[in-house]
Amino acid sequence: MKIISVSVMAIQLPLRRPFIVAYETYETMPMIIVKLQTDTGYIGYGEATPDQHVTGETWESTYAVLTKVLGPLVLDEHPFNIERIHARMDDALYGCPAAKAGIDIACYDLMGKISGQPVYHLLGGLYHDSLTIPYVLSIKEPEAMAQEAADAVANGYGCIKIKVGLHRDTDIERVHAVRKAVGKSVQIRVDANQGWQNRTDTLYVLQRIEDCNIDWIEQPVVADDLVALADVRRQTTLPIMVDEGLHDVRDMREVIALGAADRINIKLMKCGGLYPALKLVSQAEMARMECQVGSMVESSVATAAGAHLSIAKKNITSNEMVGPLMFTQDIGALNYEGSRLHLSDKPGLGIEVDERMLAEMVCISETVDRK
After folding, report:
1. Quick one: which residues bind Mg(2+) (predicted)?
2. What is this structure's pTM?
3. What phi, psi does 185 have (nearest 5°)?
4. Which residue of 37, 83, 115, 254 sits 20 to 30 Å from the alpha carbon of 209, by its own alpha carbon?
5. Do residues 225 and 231 lie in contact, with contact meaning Cβ atoms separated by under 8 Å?
């Protein structure tokens, strides 16, 4: 069995409302869908959702990498040869993890379909029966965020994630307003997305929200300053999660050595897919650090991949598999019931890709084969 064609389709999914974080405002979400086909007729889907602020990849560059470098490279490979595929991708190209994740996820979808197993069986089996997801608040004025949080709790959510990082004093107001609106029992997590820049601003904010009963604070300094992150961790009682500062196993080794974080946020687009994500989970477990599987606001394809990883691992204790809930249209569907996500036990990712809708959404596409 071998891969005989790689189809690369650039699309943009429409968001229900603008998604606003410290470094960007998104009106739509650009992504690349990867479709691998074998000589025996199996088809696997993957996704690359790049973020130039996090991985250094753009929508356009990712499309070029997949069509010109990685697509031709995996032709004639057996999809189960995942270690060799990753080694070849890494030898051919430094970095570009979102592009590599597109190939990786499609390979796992193929492996599941070929073996007749859901992907989580290939990652360790079923550990969690279903996943509890948070409600994610984009950056708005404090009163608007408080009202949206209260509405989410009224609709059954027990965990609110607050995006902050634009202005430290207003961020303090945001956190306090949300806590007041949702009461004492609802979990709150705060994500600065590097917005506070340095340890001085970070500590200024953290000292003023310590009484808000925060689960953890995520990426409160710039991504490439793990020393500052470690310094912040030593000076606060709030647990610290590293996100943009953690991409691969080398970063993880440094996080552990510096004592820079209490928890890690794994994103398939940052590390290159499911296969390298498994290595990060193992490293974290050895360091007694719990994991979260995050999202770049991905379609049902990459969200399903992250969910399969989340549901298979004991040490993954939180997730942000919320992407499909943020779109008005998607190319597939996942089973959400309020704040719970239930995965299908169908082979592969368990996603039925709507080929008609996908074709309507394609901005540009190319198929790589031996013809």
Report:
1. 191, 218, 243
2. 0.96
3. -85, -20
4. 254
5. no
Q: Exposed (0-12), middle (13-18) or buried (19+): which is 286, by Cβ within 10 Å?
A: exposed
Pick the catalytic residue from 100, 113, 161, 163: 163
Residue 21's domain spans which residues?
3-116+352-369
Q: What is the largest CA-CA distance in the chain?
A: 64
Side chain identity, residue 162: I
Instruction: Name the phi and psi angles at 215, rounded to 5.
Output: -60, -45
Same domain, 184 and 267: yes
Instruction: Pull the structure tokens for residue 43.
Output: 């088809």
**Binding site residue list:** 191, 218, 243
Q: In which residue are the tokens 């492996």 written?
A: 111
Residues 76 and 46 in one domain: yes
pLDDT digits (tens, 9 = 90+) for 232-260: 999 999 999 999 999 999 999 999 999 99
Is the domain of 54 the same as that of 85? yes
Judge whether 347 lies within some domain.
Answer: no
300 and 334 belong to one structural domain: yes
Same domain, 20 and 35: yes
Instruction: Provide the pLDDT for residue 312.
Output: 98
Residue 53 lies in a domain: yes
Mean pLDDT value across the chain? 96
State the total domains in the chain: 2
Which one of 35, 267, 270, 313 is the catalytic residue?
Answer: 267
Verify whether residue 163 is a known catalytic residue. yes
Domain match, 76 and 92 both: yes
